[in-house]
Amino acid sequence: MFAFASFLALAASAAALQVTQPSNSTGWSTSGPNTVTWSSVSTDNSNFTIVLNNQNSYPAYTEVLEALVETSEGSITVNPPSGGWVAGTGYRVNFVKDSDDLDQILAQSDDFTIEQSSSSTYSSGSSTASGSASSTGSVSVTKTSGSVSATSGS
């Protein structure tokens, strides 16, 4: 009877809220936003708070990334904390009940690595600039700080 009860408890926990990304095979990069994905069942909490944690650092690192995340969404893109992502190993994403109680963990990712990116900046918007030239003259297009200027010469 005990073995059957243990099996049921294990089966119930396997179907509950689970972090699927990041994982030890799909870590994050220090450049730009990163994605968190999860699976859930109808009996899970309707929302949770995402916390980035690293117990391998000294002092231990804990940062709330997003509060009141809707469980039904299944995925969210999280922006870097104010100091940016710090490259290193031993990170975990915790899903906690709320931002007032970071120790009440509902789900936890595997350990993962935040890799140093070769790109040091990212942009949340996009812009395009183009120019053309004719055989009788030239056009120069310059984009700086959100404005585009064009000059022509012959």
TrEMBL record:
<feature type="region of interest" description="Disordered">
    <location>
        <begin position="114"/>
        <end position="154"/>
    </location>
</feature>
<dbReference type="Pfam" id="PF10342">
    <property type="entry name" value="Kre9_KNH"/>
</dbReference>
<feature type="signal peptide">
    <location>
        <begin position="1"/>
        <end position="16"/>
    </location>
</feature>
<dbReference type="InterPro" id="IPR052479">
    <property type="entry name" value="GPI-anchor_Adhesion_Reg"/>
</dbReference>
<protein>
    <recommendedName>
        <fullName>Yeast cell wall synthesis Kre9/Knh1-like N-terminal domain-containing protein</fullName>
    </recommendedName>
</protein>
<feature type="domain" description="Yeast cell wall synthesis Kre9/Knh1-like N-terminal">
    <location>
        <begin position="21"/>
        <end position="114"/>
    </location>
</feature>
<keyword id="KW-0732">Signal</keyword>
<dbReference type="InterPro" id="IPR018466">
    <property type="entry name" value="Kre9/Knh1-like_N"/>
</dbReference>
<feature type="compositionally biased region" description="Low complexity">
    <location>
        <begin position="117"/>
        <end position="154"/>
    </location>
</feature>
